Structure formats: C-alpha cells, structure tokens
Automatic annotation (TrEMBL):
Name of the top EC class for this enzyme: isomerase
Protein name per its UniProtKB record: Ribulose-phosphate 3-epimerase
Residue ranges of coiled coil: none
Enzyme Commission no: 5.1.3.1
The protein's required cofactors: Zn(2+); Mn(2+); a divalent metal cation; Fe(2+)
Organism annotation: Nannocystis bainbridge
Gene Ontology molecular-function annotations: D-ribulose-phosphate 3-epimerase activity; lyase activity
Note on how the cofactor is bound: Binds 1 divalent metal cation per subunit.
Function in brief: Catalyzes the reversible epimerization of D-ribulose 5-phosphate to D-xylulose 5-phosphate.
Highest taxon, organism lineage: Bacteria
Length: 226
C-alpha cells in the first residue's frame, strides 16, 4: 500500500491570493495541491484554467493534482500539461472515448521531464465496474463523494462500498493505482474512507475553512493524518 496523500483543494482558498495560499499549504505539509477545474457545463460552476495553473507553478514544487470537471477534456489536457500539471484527472461521464483520452494523457510530456499521471473521476452514481477495461491505464481513480461543483458539501456514505470494490479490483489486478476521495473529507470521515482502501484524500473546507483550526493549515493537515 502506498503512503497516504493529503491533497488540500485550492477551491476553498482565497482566489485573490492563490500563490500565497499555495505556499502556505506547501509549508503546512500538504502532499499534493488539488486544483478544481470547472467549465460551467459539466458542472454548474466556473473556476480555474491552464493560465492559473501556469501562474501557480513557480510558487510550489508540490504535485499539482488537476481535477478536470469539464466537457471534452481532450481539448485542454495538453494545455494543462504545458502549464505544469503533474496529474490530470478527467471525468468518465465527460469522455466519449475514455480509453483514448487516458492514452492521450499518458503520452503527454511534462516540461520538467517525466510523464503526466492520468486519473479518472467517477461521479457518485457511476459504478466501479465502468472502469474494468481501462483500469490498467489509470494511475489514479478519483471517487467523488459529493456531486461535483462546490466545496463544503456533505460526504455521501453510499460511495463507501464503491471504494472497497475499486480497492479489490486494483488488488486483484496487481496494479499500483491510487484511490483518491474528493468531497466532504474531514477529520470525521477520513478514517472510514482510509479503511475502505483510499490512499489520497482531497480536502477543501476541511483544511482551508476549518472551524476547529481556523487558518492553521498545518494543524488541519496533521489532524487529517490522524
Ligand atoms: C468539488 C471539488 C472538490 C472540493 C471539495 O466539486 O471537486 O475538490 O473542493 O471540497 P470539500 O472538501 O469542502 O468537500
Ligand atoms: Zn476536486
């Protein structure tokens, strides 16, 4: 099993000070920085594009984990790779040719060298079985535990059996695929999700807008590590 990863989501950051927020999260011990890209079509909200990723890139050496909640992601993956994305995750529901889209991401080269890691995200209603024939092309499976579009929503417990099913599929296939969970991940939900087999944890409000820890991102991240 891979070491658990905490990936705070910049969606809950102060967008007028994104660079400083990235530096603060980096210093606070974030493993990855999760970047929520929304197009106002696949999801009802609009956020960040490749230009913002490019602007963030010089501020941190951490993995930029780009979650593309957009239609026709194949039109933009190259721009995100050029901007400095380390991981590019597309939504299964937004891909008519998912196999081709994963190949496309895996073939991208990063400017800093090495390949871009490819992820697939599943909406809460999408079954784990939808990935059987592409699992070997997924460096990461991102399980949405809220309906994508907004931070600060309640964790949907019905996705827990899906995490367990995915972990069983990955283990049976002998793959190194990570399972990342996104949405409503807090100190109250993380232990259950980890027990189900997830090993990467996105947290937006849980880190950046925590009632318990205020602006102390380091304390919030440490609490998630348990
Ligand atoms: C939701 C985004 C999440 C969001 C999670 O569409 O994909 O990454 O930032 O926010 P919290 O942790 O507040 O549920
Ligand atoms: Zn996300």
């Amino acid at each position: 099993r891979l070491a658990p990863v905490i990936a705070p989501s910049l969606l809950s950051a102060d967008f007028a000070r994104l660079g400083e927020e990235a530096v603060a999260l980096d210093r606070a011990g974030a493993d990855w920085l999760h970047v929520d890209v929304m197009d106002g079509r696949f999801v009802p909200n609009i956020t960040i594009g490749p230009l913002v990723v490019q602007a963030l890139r010089p501020h941190t050496a951490r993995v930029l984990d780009c979650h593309l909640m957009i239609e026709e992601p194949e039109r933009y993956v190259e721009a995100f790779a050029d901007a400095g994305a380390d991981i590019i995750t597309v939504h299964l529901e937004a891909c008519r040719h998912l196999h081709r889209n994963l190949q496309q991401i895996r073939d991208l080269k990063r400017k800093s060298g090495g390949r871009v890691l490819a992820g697939v995200s599943l909406n809460p209603h999408t079954p784990a079985s939808a990935l059987v024939h592409v699992l070997d092309l997924c460096d990461l499976v991102l399980v949405m535990s809220v309906n994508p579009g907004f931070g600060g929503q309640q964790f949907i417990p019905a996705v827990r059996p899906k995490i367990r099913e995915l972990r069983a599929m990955i283990t049976a296939a002998g793959l190194p695929t990570r399972i990342e969970v996104d949405g409503g991940v807090t100190v109250d939900t993380i232990a259950d999700i980890a027990a189900d087999g997830a090993d990467a944890f996105v947290s937006g409000t849980g880190v950046l807008r925590s009632r318990q820890f205020g602006r102390d991102y380091a304390a919030a991240i440490a609490a998630l590590r348990g």
